[in-house]
Amino acid sequence: MFNRIHLIVLDSVGIGAAPDAEEFGDAGTHTLKHTLNAFPVKLPNLESLGLGCIDTLPGIGCPETTEAFYSKMQEVSRGKDTMTGHWEIAGLNITEPFKVYPDGFPEELLDKIKKATGRGIVGNKPASGTEIIKEYGEEQMKTGDLIVYTSNDPVLQIAANEDVIPLEELYEICEKVREMTKDPEFLVGRVIARPFTGSSKETFTRTENRHDYALEPFGKTVLNALEDNGNDVVAIGKINDIFTGSGVTDSVRTKNNMDGVDKLLDVLDTDFNGLSFLNLVDFDAMFGHRRDPEGYSKALEAFDERLPEIYSKLREDDLLIITADHGNDPTYKGTDHTREYVPLLIKAGRDMNYKQIRQSNTFADLAATIAENFNINYETHGDSLYQELTADEK
Ligand SMILES: O=P(O)(O)O[C@H]1O[C@H](CO)[C@@H](O)[C@H]1O
Ligand SMILES: [Mn+2]
Ligand SMILES: [Mn+2]
Q: Which residues bind Mn(2+) 2 (predicted)?
């Protein structure tokens, strides 16, 4: 038994096309391999854990003995978005894909939004968030309209210049839109506030005041089971939003990847019994969707450099799990997520017989593992890896 499990999701760090990638239009994608090919960096700490043993990766070797259990996991849910990935990690199987809006949102919904907010709407199409503010930002400065857009993900995003629509108002608008889009007719997975600053299309920049409004998870997650059992569930970064606080006992906001690691280090210094759950979103939001392999590689390098600090705070009875929620190959066409395997690296605070472990057919194996570790009865389609990790403990 481990007293504390620390789960880190490297948002979008996929490790090769999943067997069903073609159904998602993603055959041949490979976030890690293609990123490292396009902009080679060394990742010595991830290499020691066994990252390069999961799949052949440029510049990353596979040491004879690794410092972690290693494997990869396949997603079973019918979706490749962040909520689906995280909810599956937490034990659910999303069999019905979320609704997406490739032609924009229906007029009826737009009318409801206009009526409720007293503001006009521009955009209303799938777009890249940095491009759409260039396209409509100057117009918004004159009209005060909302820039509404979506993507291949089940999201309704509202971009607004902080000087034109104050942050509090944007958040209120998003809360109203969140309520409207719980209606099955206009169902949306996540409403996202996308504030930005600047005075011209050359200077518009998105701020760190992004806020996500998800749906309640569709079933009981292992987070709920932990909470019910009296364990702590410390959400760091976007995790609280992704689960709408359900099953979360403490939550810590973060500004970016490095701040996320800093906040995890703070959490590692506290006494708790249960799960810490961190999402590092920059890989996805700043580099994957932006199709920027150089930025992506540098972000991987920056995370890799922080690993020894994390290890230094691990206690004997701690378990560190590093994984991802989907891919987002920055060398692939378009700007959307990619259907990929995700890496799985598991390291304890004490010496273990690290080796390759079985490949998971579902991310929910993690939920089952967490439940077994804390001796909790939790029903999931996933199978626990706990016995395999602890079978011949040193
Ligand atoms: O292009 P931006 O605004 O970054 O949007 C991206 O961010 C959304 C949420 O992570 C994704 O669905 C994708 O559309
Ligand atoms: Mn994600
Ligand atoms: Mn994304």
A: 284, 289, 337
